[in-house]
Specification:
The complex is a heterodimer. Chain A is mainly α. Helices cover 86% and strands 0% of the residues of chain A. Chain A has helices at residues 2-45, 51-71, 76-100, 105-130, 138-158, 161-187, 194-220. Chain A is globular, with a radius of gyration of 19 Å. By secondary structure, chain B is mainly alpha-helical. Chain B has one domain (6-61). The chains are: A mainly alpha, B mainly alpha. The interface between A and B is large, with 48 and 40 residues.
């Protein structure tokens, strides 16, 4: 009997811990997205040159890969997450300025933003309500992501618009898979650090938004 | 090919760097990820099809 009580107590404390990670992740994610929006607006206002995007993305990724893991378990980790997301948002400025200058630009940006939000919320709701374990996707998604990076390198030199379109579509599919995978990891206790969980989900949202912008930009401008 | 500028070269180098960094983690995930059953794969492909249809709708709207 006592053992049953202990098991139930352990389970409920594990669920509480999971809920806390989930709540903190979504709270930090919301704040970082708002902050990115602000830095993107600032970058647009300052009329930053196109190379800002490249510098910000490379800088953000390097900090996310090499600096953040060292500070993820301290309060400094939160500051670093804001630094990374602020940089990525700032890098978006010139891209948004370029799309805004297109005849249908405002519509493309609005649809990309709304589309990204709907995809993220829909997939998160799916993973949260079904509570399915998507841990089997890890290898598949990583291999898919590496193949996409190889294709992207090839297309830098080939510059085929149809290939850009295909790459963007595949990136959205892979990032959708990562949303399911990351959310499922939080639910099942595979990720207990909300700072790392936040940056993972932020990267998926960022990539979906950029890819949607590219797809709608190509398809929305026939000339 | 003649129009390659420094931004394209830096982009390509950065992507190569990311591939090199991510490669060990990818191998590790491949070896250690559990195998999914056919019903688990279906539960993954179903939302992806919905996402694909949703993007098609967005393209039609733009």
């Amino acid at each position: 009997m006592n053992q049953n009580y202990t098991t139930i107590a352990q389970k409920s404390s594990s669920v509480l811990a999971t809920n806390k990670v989930l709540r903190n992740t979504y709270m930090l994610l919301s704040l970082t997205l708002l902050f990115s929006g602000l830095t993107a607006a600032l970058s647009m206002f300052m009329n930053m040159p196109p190379m800002t995007y490249l510098v910000s993305v490379i800088g953000g990724m390097v900090i996310a890969m090499f600096v953040l893991p060292r500070f993820a378990h301290s309060t400094a980790g939160i500051g670093i997450v804001f630094l990374i997301t602020g940089m990525l948002g700032f890098g978006l400025g010139p891209i948004l300025t370029m799309y805004a200058s297109l005849p249908n630009g405002g519509n493309i940006i609005t649809l990309s933003l709304a589309g990204t939000g709907i995809i993220f919320l829909g997939l998160s709701a799916y993973a949260l309500t079904t509570r399915k374990d998507f841990s089997f996707l890890g290898g598949f998604l990583m291999v898919g992501f590496l193949l996409v990076l190889l294709a992207a390198i090839a297309n830098i030199f080939l510059a085929i618009p149809a290939m850009s379109l295909a790459i963007s579509a595949v990136v959205i599919m892979i990032m959708s898979g990562f949303i399911l995978y990351d959310t499922s990891r939080i639910i099942h206790g595979g990720e207990t650090n909300y700072v790392l969980a936040t940056i993972g989900l932020y990267m998926t949202i960022f990539n979906i938004f950029i890819s949607l912008l590219q797809i709608l930009g190509i398809m929305g401008n026939d000339d | 090919m003649d129009d390659l500028n420094w931004m394209q070269i830096v982009s390509a180098l950065a992507l190569v760097m990311f591939i090199i960094i991510l490669f060990p983690a990818t191998l590790d995930k491949l070896k250690n990820s559990p195998k999914g059953t056919s019903s688990e794969w279906m539960s993954f492909f179903f939302p992806l099809i919905v996402v694909f249809l949703f993007i098609t709708l967005l393209v039609a709207l733009v």
